[in-house]
Amino acid sequence: MELQKFLTDNNHAICAQWAEAIIKTYPEEGAKFFSGSANQFANPVGHTFRNNVERIYKVLLSEADVAECSTDLDGILRIRAVQGFVPSVALSFLPALKEIVRRQLEKACSAEQADAMLHDWNTRVDRLTMLGFDLYMNCRELLWKQKANQLYSRTHKLLERANLLKDEEVAG
Q1: Given this model, what pLDDT does residue 166 score?
Q2: Can you tell me the distance from the alpha carbon of 141 to that of 1, in angstroms, rounded to the nearest whole number?
Q3: Cα separation of 11 and 153, whole Å?
Q4: Are the CB atoms for 47 and 39 separated by under 8 Å?
């Protein structure tokens, strides 16, 4: 059995389970909502998860550089960064792909055969996980910078209103 053909043939089942792995990290109410409607406007987060997962999976199948899916991965991770997930939970869906593929493959062949076939695939998913970590941390850093700038601006305005700033500080 050829792994590439297997992954292509089981594309829909694997992507559905992978999107579900993202959704399972949410509390019950959120998970129910995100797994509901596929409509982009009624459920934009769930829609983003499902569509981006499929596009990322296609890049992984094409054996192109994993960096080519950084835009789609960034779309998912920006949502999770804004929602305040810790990095281990925010990125947990990436290594989950290895387990999902492994379970699907073991339905068709033995565990030993699956291990032998999945070495290169697992390496690609690990690279994707490292890319995801970088993207997630960039998003979190940007959020913290925005919060710091907002706090600075608010404090500066309060000091200005209280006339506690020198004239050159107000101008600059």
Answers
A1: 74
A2: 44
A3: 49
A4: yes
Name the CA radius of gyration of the chain, rounded.
21
Q: Give the pLDDT of residue 104.
A: 94
- Which sign, positive or negative, has the C-alpha torsion 73, 133, 66, 8? negative
Left if phi > 0, otherwise alpha if psi is -120 to 50, otherwise beta: which for 50?
alpha
Q: How many CB atoms lie within 10 A of CB 125?
A: 20
Alpha-carbon gap, residue 4 to 60, rounded angstroms: 10
Cα 39 from chain centroid (whole Å): 20
**What pLDDT, on the 0 to 100 scale, is given for residue 82?**
93
3-class DSSP state for residue 172? coil
Number of helices (H), then strands (E), in the chain: 10, 0
Q: Which two tokens stand for residue 4?
A: 């590439």
Answer yes or no: is pLDDT of 171 > 70: no
On whether the CB atoms of residues 74 and 83 are closer than 8 A, the answer is: no
Contact partners, residue 149, CB within 8 Å, separation at least 6: none
How remote is the C-alpha of 45 from its chain's centroid? 11
Residue 158: the pLDDT is 85
Comparing CA positions, the residue from 63, 62, 82, 81 lying closest to residue 132 is: 81
CA distances from 4 to 71, 135, 155 (A): 24, 27, 57
